[in-house]
């Protein structure tokens, strides 16, 4: 089964389980009110009342089981996605550091380039590094010259392009 068919199947089962739980809840609430106020009003023939209670209880138990199973699957998928994201982030970090080495950035230039890519302003970078803004501007010029990129946008785009290649539509 394809991923989208599997998701559709799981969603159908989850909605079905919810419908069963709602039906059982409605039945038990009506039964409780009937028992509490001694209306002796049965939705079905009294002979089948106990059978209907048992059937509702059984259906509710199955629906609860499927719901917990679905929760377990969702939590596993969430863990897998988190792990994949951590791996991808690690690979991206490796790619960035390798490229910075190829461009022969100094340690300071590498740190500033990362802060630029994170979107910090020049003043914020200067404050974070305990440097003057003129020093940061000078290092930015050196970064752009060594990388042969014109500005911060091109620096970010340089790395984003590799991430987006997999989703390119030809």
Summarize this structure as a short list of keywords or feature phrases.
Arc Repressor Mutant, subunit A; 0% strand; 170 residues; rod-shaped; mainly alpha
Plain-language structure description:
This protein is an all-alpha fold and 170 residues long. It has two domains: 1-85; 103-170, Orthogonal Bundle (Arc Repressor Mutant, subunit A). The chain is 82% helix and 0% strand. It is built from six helices and no strands. Helix 1 (3-37) runs antiparallel to helix 2 and helix 3 (107-117) packs across helix 5 (133-147). The longest helix is centred in the middle third of the chain and has 57 residues, at 46-102.
Q: Ends: how far apart?
A: 27 Å
Main β-sheet: number of strands, strand sense, barrel status?
Answer: none
Number of strands: 0
Percent in strands:
under 5%
Class from secondary-structure proportions: mainly alpha
Total count of helical runs of at least 4 residues: 6
Provide the residue-averaged pLDDT: 87
User: What overall form do the CA principal axes indicate?
Assistant: rod-shaped
pLDDT < 50 runs, ≥5 residues: none
* Overall radius of gyration: 31 Å
Percentage of helical residues? over 70%
Number of domains: 2
Order of helices and strands: HHHHHH
Describe the protein's topology:
Layout: H1 3-37, H2 46-102, H3 107-117, H4 122-129, H5 133-147, H6 152-164
Helix pairs in contact: 1-2, 3-5, 4-5
Can I get a quick summary?
With 170 residues, the protein is an all-alpha fold. Helices cover 82% and strands 0% of the residues.
């Amino acid at each position: 089964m394809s991923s989208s068919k599997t998701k559709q199947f799981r969603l159908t089962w989850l909605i079905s389980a919810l419908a069963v739980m709602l039906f059982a809840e409605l039945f038990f609430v009506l039964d409780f009110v009937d028992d509490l106020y001694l209306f002796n009003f049965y939705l079905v023939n009294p002979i089948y009342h106990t059978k209907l209670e048992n059937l509702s209880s059984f259906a509710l138990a199955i629906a609860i089981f499927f719901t917990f199973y679905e929760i377990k699957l969702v939590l596993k998928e969430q863990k897998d996605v988190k792990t994949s994201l951590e791996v991808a982030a690690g690979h991206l970090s490796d790619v960035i550091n390798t490229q910075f080495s190829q461009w022969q950035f100094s340690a300071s230039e590498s740190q500033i380039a990362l802060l630029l890519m994170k979107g910090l302003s020049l003043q914020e970078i200067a404050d974070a590094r305990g440097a003057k803004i003129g020093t940061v501007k000078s290092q930015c010029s050196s970064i752009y010259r060594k990388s042969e990129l014109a500005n911060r946008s091109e620096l970010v785009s340089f790395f984003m392009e590799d991430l987006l290649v997999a989703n390119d539509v030809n």
